[in-house]
Write a structure and sequence with these properties.
- The protein has 724 residues and is of the alpha/beta class.
- It has four domains: 62-115 and 271-502, Zn peptidases (Aminopeptidase, 3-Layer(aba) Sandwich); 117-268, Glucose Oxidase, domain 1 (3-Layer(bba) Sandwich), CATH 3.50.30.30; 504-619; 620-724, Orthogonal Bundle (Arc Repressor Mutant, subunit A), CATH 1.10.10.
- The protein has 21 helices and 17 strands.
- The strands form three sheets. Strands 1-9-11-10-12-15-13-14 form an eight-stranded mixed sheet, sandwiched between helices.
- Helix 6 (187-196) links the parallel strand 5 and strand 6 (202-205).
- Helix 15 (505-536) packs parallel to helix 17 (575-612), helix 16 (543-567) crosses helix 20 (681-691) and helix 20 crosses helix 21 (697-710).
Length: 724
């Protein structure tokens, strides 16, 4: 792109011989255009003012977050027995010590029961070679190489390659008694198929998420503890793709390879630790806020990014906020902030169940899972995964507000280059990268603690980095992390946390206005998606269904936005009165906007009908639609002690969907979450179709009928529905 600044032209007659001027005079006549560092642009707006955001940027430290990681997990290690017998665990002790230095209001370790804890003190894997045995693994080099729950033993056996190892045909014609089996299936699958069912003494797995891209990593895994039917549980080791291929080549050449596993392991009484820090509110409200990360994902698997990075980040969020409050640069919190460092999901459940009084006070959770990865090295994006439509909340928009603000001010925008070739106010760490800040506001995905909070009725979002090429592997180590990414994540998060903790009525109104505006954008985006269904048809007989799907998409988003705007009421001093005002003020406007969007959908339908030479009449409901529209779905009460149903896309909770089903996997969690809310089968179909993409009503009908057969739902007759 060309530089568009004007270049002065001097006529030839005016030119003079070159003469050197004094430097000061030269600069005075021709000032250098310097980068305008920190130049505020009026379009850069967020819920806090520029002075507050600048203060956060100047205080938040990516280096300190990195230091936290190095205190927690400088390397993947074998824990000392004392951590199990006398405690606390290293991460817990380090967190509390630093929290006390930083001035948190309280810093405690809460202990909850768990299953017995397994820990090896020795582990070596050997394979025979022509000139002597070769040690493939030692747990003091690569702790995750040994499958969790492998018992003490010195066991040897000849190696047999079974290919994948998850199918009976992989074992056909092979005598495995007393042998060691190698396959690409997970450890526990190989253990069941080879050890429990065919008499093998141990298994080697080279199961990997990215075997071609990452041939030298091992993914943390486990075997089943104890023996089945009185038999031997065998041993389990992980090998890399490269090691597995080398062993396969040797076997194909006719070599006999003997594998030896040497393990000494102990079990300790079960214990999980939850580190609980607080920054006290001013006592003016009975509401609290939670900031969470799982510092433990099991005790053997220790990941620098997953998720010691999340724990390191939230500790830095708290430290920075305390300093900014002391300096008078941010408002003191009205609501107490709880910082929870947990065993993933299990620790969150245990803490919430142990503190029902606090659970009632919590209005929001910010959850952090994998935050510090260098984005360009990993080819990754920093994600805000919104709460699902089954749990609409203002929380999404607060977080998006700050995330997009930081993304914009750290980007050099060519339209502002008259101020200099620089971002408005970059957010960099001294020892970090200068990478672009790649972000994405994404749909909900579960499988972390935010899903657990929502199952307990608490609004929650997750910040996450994906992809992570070293996810759950032997190479999830601190060298993959970036202080600049930590700093940017901290700035975004401190801003969001400040709004949640300190919001008064004025801030609550600002949030409501922001939510309304972003909701209008989402409604327009869903309408655009719906209009594309009409544009996608390839025959006239598809038009009626496309039109129906387009209307359902607009109506779905309008209903969600009504719930989102009402959810802001919790931030006002009088939530009940605030909800009434928000409802009477904004809900009619959302309805009017939906009516306008639907009118545009109908206009497009009319034009399409003319193009396809069919009548533009409103589609009549089919017999199946009529039956589905009057069939209400109620959930059968779960058995005592069962987990509550809740948002579950991607493994995030709720009951598993019954099989067989034709519902796409990414929809089953949301379908499961809305079952039992008094909706009809047709309502449920339109809900998941509006949130994602159209799914055939017959597939939803069959799915619900399967749930009825399984005894998880009850179907009852409701009022007749005549239109869609």
């Amino acid at each position: 792109m060309q530089d568009t600044r004007p270049v002065p032209l001097t006529p030839p007659s005016m030119r003079r011989p070159l003469r050197l001027l004094p430097l000061a005079l030269t600069l005075a006549l021709h000032p250098v255009v310097a980068p305008s560092l920190g130049a505020q642009e009026k379009e850069d707006r967020t819920l806090l003012n520029w002075e507050q955001m600048r203060a956060i940027i100047m205080e938040a430290s990516g280096e300190r977050a990195m230091h936290h990681v190095m205190e927690f997990v400088p390397y993947q290690r074998v824990r000392q027995a004392a951590e199990y017998t006398t405690g606390p665990f290293r991460e817990s002790r380090a967190t509390v010590e630093m929290a006390k230095q930083y001035g948190f209001s309280s810093a405690n370790i809460e202990t909850f029961p768990s299953a017995a804890l397994w820990q090896p003190s020795k582990g070596q894997l050997w394979v025979s070679e022509k000139n002597g045995p070769r040690k493939l693994h030692d747990i003091f080099d690569t702790p995750v190489a040994l499958g969790t729950n492998t018992p003490t033993g010195d066991i040897s056996g000849d190696l047999v390659d079974v290919g994948n190892g998850s199918r009976p045909e992989d074992y056909a014609g092979k005598d495995l008694k007393g042998k060691v089996v190698m396959g690409s299936a997970p450890l526990n699958t190989l253990q069941r198929m080879a050890v429990f069912e065919r008499g093998a003494v141990g298994v080697l797995s080279w199961n990997s998420m990215r075997p071609i891209q990452q041939p030298d990593i091992m993914v943390s895994s486990a075997i089943v503890a104890g023996a089945m039917s009185g038999g031997n549980s065998g041993f389990g080791w992980l090998v890399t793709t490269r090691q597995a291929r080398d062993l396969q080549v040797r076997l194909e050449r006719g070599e006999q390879i003997t594998v030896r596993s040497v393990v000494e392991a102990q079990t300790f009484p079960g214990r999980q630790e939850v580190i609980h820090l607080t920054i006290d509110g001013d006592g003016s409200t009975n509401q609290d806020v939670v900031v969470s990360a799982h510092i433990f994902e099991g005790l053997i698997k220790q990941g620098a990014n997953d998720d010691n990075s999340g724990a390191a980040l939230i500790l830095e969020m708290g430290r920075s906020y305390i300093e900014l409050i002391k300096a008078g640069k941010l408002p003191k919190p009205k609501r107490t902030i709880h910082f929870l460092f947990v065993q993933e999901i299990a620790g969150t459940n245990a803490w919430l169940n142990a503190h029902p009084d606090l659970k009632k006070r919590i209005i929001a959770d910010l959850n952090y899972d994998m935050e510090g990865l260098r984005l360009t090295t990993a080819g990754a994006t920093w994600l805000l995964m919104r709460s699902p439509d089954s749990f609409p909340s203002f929380l999404n928009d607060i977080c998006q507000n700050f995330m997009e603000f930081v993304s914009e001010i750290t980007r050099e925008r060519v339209r502002y280059r008259h101020n200099g070739y620089a971002p408005a106010l970059d957010v960099l760490s001294p020892n970090g990268s200068r990478d672009p800040f790649y972000i994405k506001i994404d749909k909900y995905y579960g499988a972390s603690d935010h899903a657990t909070y929502m199952q307990h009725g608490i609004p929650a979002v997750i910040f996450n980095t994906w992809p992570d090429p070293w996810y759950h592997s032997s190479q999830d180590t601190p060298d993959k992390l970036d202080p600049t990414q930590f700093k940017r994540a901290a700035v975004v998060s401190i801003g969001a946390m400040t709004v949640l903790a300190a919001a008064d009525d004025n801030m609550a109104l600002r949030v409501a206005a922001d939510v309304l505006g972003r909701g209008a954008e989402r409604m327009a985006a869903n309408q655009r998606k719906g209009l594309s269904y009409i544009g996608d048809i390839t025959s006239a007989d598809q038009l009626a269904q496309a039109y129906t799907d387009a209307k359902a998409t607009v109506r779905h988003q309008a209903n969600i936005e009504k719930s989102v705007i009402k959810s802001v009421s919790v931030l006002f001093a009088d939530p009940v009165a605030a909800e009434k005002r928000l409802t009477t003020t904004y809900i009619p406007l959302i309805d009017a906007r939906a009516a306008s969007l639907l009118a545009e959908v109908k206009a497009t339908f009319t034009m399409a009908a003319s193009a396809w030479k069919v009548a533009a009449t409103e589609p009549a409901m089919s017999a199946l639609e009529q039956e589905a529209g009057r069939t209400l779905v109620q959930r059968t009460p779960p058995a005592a002690g069962a987990a509550p149903a809740g948002p579950g896309g991607g493994g995030g909770g709720g009951r598993p969907a019954p099989t067989p089903t034709r519902i796409p996997q990414h929809m089953t969690g949301e379908l499961n979450a809305v079952v039992g809310r008094g909706m009809s089968v047709l309502d449920i179909r339109d809900f998941i179709s509006g949130q994602f993409e159209p799914v055939p009503l017959q597939d939803v009908w069959d799915h619900i009928k399967n749930m009825e057969k399984a005894g998880t739902v009850t179907l009852t007759a409701g009022p007749v529905r005549r239109t869609r």
